[in-house]
Design a protein that fits this description.
Blueprint (H helix, E strand, L loop, with lengths): L1 H4 L4 H8 L3 H8 L6 H13 L2 E4 L7 E4 L2
Antiparallel strand pairs: 1-2
Helix pairs in contact: 2-3, 2-4
Pfam family, one: HTH_3
InterPro entries: Cro/C1-type_HTH, Lambda_DNA-bd_dom_sf
Organism: Pseudooceanicola sediminis
């Protein structure tokens, strides 16, 4: 959801995060990844304008930065 919200394709996000396209696909399918891999993908998404919202009773989510 976050990737699409900022208009990134799988290839684009993979390049920004410095990971393989298959890694992004595995993440999106819900397959387990190393925490360090998830961290670099999160940083790339944040750099692209995504803000991650912590659990606040309504569940974890994302939104675009203002």
């Amino acid at each position: 959801m976050a990737r699409v919200a900022v208009g990134l394709g799988v290839r684009d996000l993979a390049e920004l995060a410095g990971v393989a396209q298959a890694t992004i696909s595995r993440l999106e399918r819900g397959e387990p990844l190393k925490p360090s891999t998830v961290a670099v993908i999160k940083i790339a998404l944040e750099g692209a304008g995504v803000e991650f919202i912590p659990e606040n009773g309504g569940g974890v989510g994302v939104r675009l930065k203002k």
